[in-house]
Specification:
Blueprint (H helix, E strand, L loop, with lengths): L2 E3 L2 E6 L1 H7 L8 E3 L7 H8 L3 H10 L7 H12 L13 E5 L2 E5 L10 H4 L2 H12 L4 E7 L3 H10 L5 E8 L5 H8 L6 E7 L2 H12 L2 H9 L2 E5 L5 H21 L8 E6 L4 H12 L3 E8 L4 H8 L1 E3 L20 H9 L2 H14 L1 E3 L2 H10 E5 L2 H15 L5 H17 L5 E5 L7 H7 L10 H10 L5 H4 L11 E3 L3 H8 L2
Parallel strand pairs: 5-15, 6-7, 6-9, 7-8, 8-16, 10-11, 10-15, 11-14
Antiparallel strand pairs: 1-2, 1-3, 4-5, 12-13
Amino acid sequence: MRYVSTRDSGLNLRASEAIVMGLSRDGGLFLPSQMPELDRDALEKLVQMNYYERAVTVMKLFLEEFSEQELAEYAAKAYHVPEKFDSEAVAPVVTLADGTHILELWHGPTSAFKDMALQMLPYLLTASLKKTGEEKTVCILVATSGDTGKAALEGFRDVPKTKILVFYPKDGVSDIQKLQMATQEGENVGVCAVVGNFDDAQSGVKRIFSDEALREELEQKGYFLSSANSINWGRVLPQLVYYVSSYCDLVKQGAIALGDEINVCVPTGNFGNILAAYYTRCMGLPIKKLICASNANNVLTDFIETGVYDKNRPFYNTTSPSMDILISSNLERLLYLLSGSDETVRGYMQQLTETGHYKVDAQLRSAVQEIFAAGCCDDARTAQTIAQVYNETGYLMDTHTAVAYTVLEDYRQKTGDRTPAVVASTASPFKFCNSVLGALGEQKLEPGTAILDQLTARTGKAAPAPLAGLKGKRVRFTQSVEKEQMKAVVQEMLR
């Protein structure tokens, strides 16, 4: 299996090389040159496996230079350690009603779906460094809208031959998300707030990656740059596993029969999570429709419905901040997969850089709409959904999950499509206590970590141990800079 860049299909790398580089020097994203298949026999075997066995089976299809023994070791360390995941199933599927199934992706050490990939990535990256003969220390730069940062920090904490620096939008994450990052332990970690939104932080990181002078400066000091964002294929690949696993669990539970179609609804801003689901569909997983759920920053909804991608619009700080994104990096991979043309992708990305928008041709638009549906949900409806679902079923969901649940219901009403659906639940409700309590009618909110106890008292639900453990932790990182100063922060950390 070889890997190419979305902007240069002539660039041909091994998986280890693509994972180490993270982002192609041409600004493109790496993706596999061919698509492996999961046939009915393979799925039947996967149904009988546990999560980490499924992870080995799926990832081995894309990582031919990694032995099954290697991947089994990494998967066991990532997912089969009780101290890391508080659910034996790792990513359990909870049925709310007939035909609606919640895929809970937040039972890991940071209570967000990013753990599913970022518990695996450090093993893939360190192994890839050895396979490529790289002796320099890798500095991992991360732009986060809230969840990736903490998950990456935790995943790479004190990993040898690595340093990690996370940038987050100063006023664009929840209080609990900020506290998770600010109190991060580890000798190789750094955290810095950026004045602006997530797109400012993400664009700043991309500029640093393309800075040839900085790259040479760091090489002289024994460092090179890589990424733990979903621009890195090593981040996207482990995310394929939980969609395959959810399907297998539904078969095992008797909710569907092997071969039955499902729909999948994903709350997404950077398009990485739903892209992973698309890959499994390409492999043969019986997914009928992929439903892309957005909040008020509905650039993806508009694109799927019109074929026009336009980031020139108001930016909203919402109650689902991990989706507050106007530049969806992973959409580039989809455009390449559907067009088959690096020239086409380069043209669209150049237009996006120069004008802030692009319009795909009619054929590409039709190809997108054949597979994807889309919808959006504002903060008011998000709150209504949280309250309604909790009052009717006792199930407590976070704001991002509520966006997806709402969009799924809208899709069903619009189309009449009652295909069994999996809703990706991306974070614990305790990461967004303010918004969840507000949705449940609480007007006076407790300060700091006391709000965790307030949500427990209101609902009878216990806060995940990693969040409860924030009480009394020392704040280590308080730095805040303008986006133009991000390069200097990197230089200071690696001086």
